[in-house]
Specification:
With 497 residues, this protein is an alpha/beta fold. 29% of the residues lie in helices and 18% in strands. It has a single domain, classed as Alpha/Beta hydrolase fold, catalytic domain (Rossmann fold). The protein has 15 helices and 16 strands. Strands 1, 2, 3, 4, 5, 6, 7, 8, 9, 10, 13, 14, 15 and 16 form a 14-stranded mixed sheet that branches. It has a two-stranded parallel ribbon with strand order 11-12. Helix 6 packs across helix 8, helix 11 runs parallel beside helix 13 and helix 12 crosses helix 13. The longest helix is centred in the C-terminal third of the chain and has 24 residues. The radius of gyration is 22 Å and the shape is globular. The relative contact order is 0.11. This is Carboxylic ester hydrolase. Its EC number is 3.1.1.-. Pfam families: COesterase.
Length: 497
């Protein structure tokens, strides 16, 4: 790698040379392909190698991302969290690399996988700018992957879990090319939030990802949101019917992309009735997303929790955690929490949880409104307790955190909601503060300094300032408080596997 006086920088990877840019002490290479374009004959195929190019490839702009459709949320700057929506183009299986503008080698590598319910998001959202990690001595990489129909719909005749296969291909690229950017390929930490964290938890257990990373940071995610392929095929049938095509590769390939995005929106509506419950009567995703990874293939031969019990991923150090009030992002920002009573709360929950009345009672229905009981219950059912279950079953080194700082957005009611920790992890508070900022008007820089440093120290050598989690001591580190303590089991424990 070399730099010149006009701040362009050159790096060489196996497929050819790259031209990036140095800005404020960070070298940036944006939109580097890690796999061939997933279009034409490569659509609905496993990720294919990148063809070599002649000359120097420009990596000064982020480039396209996966097809998606985003919607505004009144009072919230969504673009800061998930990006500006769909940037059309064929070459979107790409990644960004940020590294310090120096000649150091052997640097820790951190690979970020974005969230967005497996249907929206990209590597380029402002809140997750990896330059802050590069500034502090890390090679930071963020990836795009296929989503929705192309990434997570198990169409007959199509390889399953194509989105996860994309992530695995990107991690192979990282292993091969990290040294070209000063990184240590034997010291890779994957980290992600929400759907990205769910995917990482799955990859911890995947035989196809074995040896590709040393550590994993799982933010508001876990391994409990996968479907049996047979159950997910119900979604295939519904999508095919909406599109008026055969439930085959050729059928879905024939549908215009805008029609596909329309259909995704339709099946994602809470009013769309589709039974995605498993044999136990539970819907493991609670309706938050219809498109999730499936188990029962070569990527995830068994459900992740069962794989952990047999020692899968034991060689990986895991840092996993949640936010204290996760569901506020969905139920406070929409106004639902304070509009619904106990009956509507029960109707909403019973679609996913067969013992809905019992759950709501366990979370204070009768002592507080049905909407608030539902919000508290779903925070634990969807996020907090499954993360602890993942920690319990992981046979390797495992640490658990809780992020409890409360945002003042939405009149102070948003609190420690889903995604609120991301600007602290990346030390990008300015992207998420302001009149419509996720964090409210202001947020404590000192907390961002500490949380950002915790993530870097863990990625560097596994260091963390609190004890490992086990079933007996149940040590959970609260980020704002800066201390760990025993955490008792939650009421949700009685209702989840």
């Amino acid at each position: 790698m070399s730099s010149d006086s006009n701040s362009t920088v050159i790096a060489r990877v196996a497929a050819g040379e790259l031209c990036g840019r140095s800005i404020n002490g960070v070298r940036r290479f944006l939109g580097i392909p890690y796999a061939a374009s997933p279009t034409g004959e490569h659509r609905f195929a496993a990720p294919q190698p990148v063809a070599a190019w002649a000359g120097i490839r420009d990596t000064l702009k982020p480039g396209p991302n996966a097809p998606q459709r985003t919607r505004a949320v009144p009072g919230l700057d969504v673009a800061a969290l998930i990006g500006d929506g769909w940037a059309p183009g064929d070459d979107y299986l790409t990644l960004n690399v940020w590294r310090p503008d120096d000649d150091h080698t052997g640097l820790p590598v951190m690979v970020f996988i974005h969230g967005g319910g497996f249907v929206v998001g990209s590597k380029d959202a402002p809140v997750q700018d990896g330059a802050t990690f590069a500034r502090d001595g890390v090679v930071c990489i963020a990836i795009n992957y296929r989503m929705g129909v192309d990434g997570f719909l198990p169409i007959p005749g199509v390889p399953t879990n194509l989105g996860l296969r994309d992530m695995i291909a990107a991690l192979h690229w990282v292993r091969q090319e990290a040294a070209a950017f000063g990184g240590d390929p034997d010291n890779v930490t994957v980290f992600g939030e929400s759907a990205g964290a769910m995917a990482i938890a799955d990859l911890v257990t995947s035989p196809l990802a074995k040896g590709l990373f040393r550590r994993a940071i799982i933010q508001s995610g876990h391994g409990g949101m996968t479907r049996d392929i047979g159950v997910a095929r119900r979604l295939v049938a519904r999508m095919a019917k909406l599109l008026g095509v055969a439930a085959t590769r050729d059928g879905f390939a024939s549908a215009p992309i805008e029609a596909v995005l329309d259909a995704i929106e339709t099946v994602s509506l809470p009013t769309t009735r589709i039974d995605l419950r498993g044999s136990d009567g539970r819907e493991p995703v609670f309706g938050i997303s219809r498109f999730v990874p499936v188990h029962g293939d070569d990527v995830l031969p068994v459900e992740p929790l069962d794989a952990l019990k047999t020692g899968a991923g034991a060689e990986i150090d895991v840092l996993i955690g949640s936010n204290a009030e996760e569901m506020n992002l969905y139920l406070v920002s929409s106004g639902v929490r304070d509009k619904i009573g106990r009956l509507i709360a029960w109707l909403a929950l019973r679609r996913s949880q067969p013992r809905a009345w019992s759950v709501l009672n366990a979370y204070g229905a009768g002592r507080q409104s049905g909407g608030r009981a539902l919000t508290d219950a779903m925070t634990d059912l969807v996020f907090r307790w499954p993360a602890r279950r993942f920690a319990e079953e992981h046979r390797g080194r495992t640490h658990v955190y809780e992020f409890e700082w409360r945002s003042t957005a939405f009149g102070g009611e948003l609190g420690a909601a889903h995604a609120v920790e991301i600007p602290f992890v990346f030390d990008t508070l300015a992207t998420a503060t302001g009149p419509e900022g996720l964090l409210g008007q202001t947020a404590p820089q000192e907390l961002a300094d500490r949380m950002h440093r915790l993530w870097i120290d863990f990625a560097r050598d596994g260091s963390l300032p609190w004890a490992e989690f086990d079933r007996d001591t149940r040590q959970v580190y609260r980020i704002e408080a800066g201390s760990a303590a025993h955490e008792p089991a939650m009421p949700a424990a009685a209702y989840l596997p």
